[in-house]
Design brief:
8-stranded mixed β-sheet
């Protein structure tokens, strides 16, 4: 796997090396400049996963494409994802993207949410739903448009962000939590070698129904990142 973290790794190294408040403020100022309107570009926070697939930060210019991607797969996505019904127009997608950009500043410089780009088309999203920097663990989530299914995209996108978490963000533990009945989504952590640790009962309300979540986990010293032969 050819992984290029571009600016991300430099920012994280700089951030973790800051020993004074003044240095930290300078770091955040630099980061905000890169997030500014005049500085946006697709090379920011880019992770080249393979020849066809890369992950990058969203920009507000992606709002229309993101909305249409969600809208064309709305019925497919809403079976398991509660947020789909709230993304009703381009403005809602723009608000989501702005939130992901704000999250970079709030969390100290790492990309929390990434666009999945497959053959130069926006295909879905992968990201960290929660990051605990004190205890060095995170949970990740993902979704993929219906038309991009069964190409191995989600598996490889997750592999890329897991590498980012362990190698760059210095996490020790990564979780994936999946609705127990969502067999296709559960296949992702199982394929990647995550260990099933237990069940959170009736933890999510989707379409008026409470879903259990199965909790899968990978520790840093367990992660091998080996390829497999399956597709999502």
């Amino acid at each position: 796997m050819n992984t290029d973290y571009d600016i991300t790794e430099q920012f994280i190294i700089l951030r973790t090396s800051c020993t004074h408040d003044e240095e930290a403020e300078e770091f955040m100022g630099v980061l905000k400049q890169y997030m500014g309107e005049e500085k946006r570009n697709e090379k920011m926070f880019t992770n080249q996963v393979n020849e066809d697939l890369y992950l990058r930060m969203y920009t507000v210019d992606d709002a229309e494409a993101l909305y249409h991607l969600i809208d064309e797969s709305r019925d497919y996505l809403k079976e398991w994802l509660a947020w789909v019904d709230y993304n009703t127009d381009v403005e809602a997608s723009r608000d989501f993207i702005q939130g992901t950009l704000n999250g970079v500043v709030e969390t100290g410089g790492y990309p929390k949410t990434l666009a999945i780009i497959y053959k130069n088309e926006l295909a879905g999203t992968v990201g960290f739903n929660e990051v605990n920097r004190t205890h060095q663990y995170a949970t990740i989530g993902y979704w993929l448009s219906e038309k991009f299914q069964r190409k191995g995209i989600v598996t490889e996108a997750c592999r890329g962000i897991i590498d980012l978490g362990f190698k760059v963000m210095r996490l020790n533990r990564i979780e994936i939590r999946v609705a127990s009945g969502n067999k296709k989504s559960r296949a992702i952590p199982e394929r990647l070698g995550f260990k099933e640790e237990g069940v959170l009962r009736q933890v999510e309300l989707v379409n008026g129904q409470f879903y259990d979540h199965v909790v899968y986990c990978m520790l840093k010293d367990e992660w091998s990142g080996k390829k497999d032969k399956q597709v999502d």
